[in-house]
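Posted in: Protein Modeling Q&A

I'm a second-year student putting together a small comparison for a lab meeting, and my supervisor asked me to include a predicted structure for Peptide ABC transporter ATP-binding protein. I've never done this before, so apologies if this is the wrong subforum. The sequence is pasted below exactly as I got it from our records. If anyone can share the structure token output, I'd also love a short note on what stands out.
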Amino acid sequence: MLLEVRDLHVEFRTRDGVAKAVDGVDCAVDAGETLAVLGESGSGKSVTAQAVMGILDTPPGRITGGEVLFRGRDLLKLKEEERRRVRGAEMAMIFQDALSSLNPVLPVGDQLGEMFVVHRGMSRKAARAKAVELMDRVRIPAARERVGQYPHQFSGGMRQRIMIAMALALEPALIIADEPTTALDVTVQAQVMELLAELRREYRMGLVLITHDLGVVADVADRIAVMYAGRIVETAPVHDLYKAPAHPYTRGLLDSVPRLDLKGRELRAIKGLPPNLTAVPPGCAFHPRCPLARDVCRTDVPPLYEVTGTDAARGSACHFWRECLDG
Ligand SMILES: Nc1ncnc2c1ncn2[C@@H]1O[C@H](COP(=O)(O)OP(=O)(O)OP(=O)(O)O)[C@@H](O)[C@H]1O
Ligand code: SF4
Ligand SMILES: [Mg+2]
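Accepted answer (user: helix_wrangler)
Welcome! Here is the predicted structure, written out as tokens:
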């Protein structure tokens, strides 16, 4: 296994108390595989990614437990210096907002080239040639002419391609993309997503794709992990999950997606809001919003049950997953 996260816990100390932003997350990604992490705003997707990458703001955030095994090695046990060597070279991250991630006063070619100068000891000239090559790889037209331009001279979609090129530069084994297309308009979103999927295949990378858009993941992901209030509440191969969700929250998410094949059907959003993480409801955190909730849900935290009776490896943190699966 390329990446295996075990029982990860991250807390934030806030004025209102301790927020358990990540509360016992387990997940895994293999080489050449895409894991989509899905969930509403505030469910802990980015904090999980930051903890895995080793870029969590500490304080206020603090990893309070768990393991992040990368190629069998627990990254949480490494010294910061070793950690830095892993970042970029072995795992890289793509963020939502390319404009604030790129340096506005440095030509994009220099920023791309910097990766090779710093990590590979290349000359500036050789690094610039590499930058052009990378810009070609991510299909930026006229790369040779544009390598000296500044971030603001590129469109949002092209800037996101530059971010992808940066992440790819050292050919890492794993890329974590945190809402990589959210800031783009729909057609550009699809192009950037296709590019990512293609590069992932070509380089046989593991890809973790964080999104709150179910529509985006259907075509590109192998597995999905659905997060709610800092936990993974359902995990399954993408098509199995779409066909028959085994958690009422997933069902709610699926029902709230406009579907072309169900035109005219009323949109059913999930009622209510996700909980404040300093005061998560007892029992199943989803119970105040769950149409299937009953007494046991208000007292007993559901573990991630193994969903049996299907060929796929699936899990659901719902006491009544079977009922949900049966629709
Ligand atoms: N800097 C911070 N200070 C205090 N609490 C924080 C901080 N960053 C995150 N949190 C807590 O962690 C929770 C999870 O945040 P996270 O950014 O991981 O959500 P997310 O799932 O990525 O949401 P979004 O879809 O909006 O990006 C937040 O709800 C908040 O309680
Ligand atoms: S455990 Fe209960 S409240 Fe939680 S999702 Fe299942 S039915 Fe709903
Ligand atoms: Mg986020």
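A couple of things worth pointing out for your meeting: The chain has one domain: 3-96+174-325. The first strand starts at residue 3 and ends at 14.
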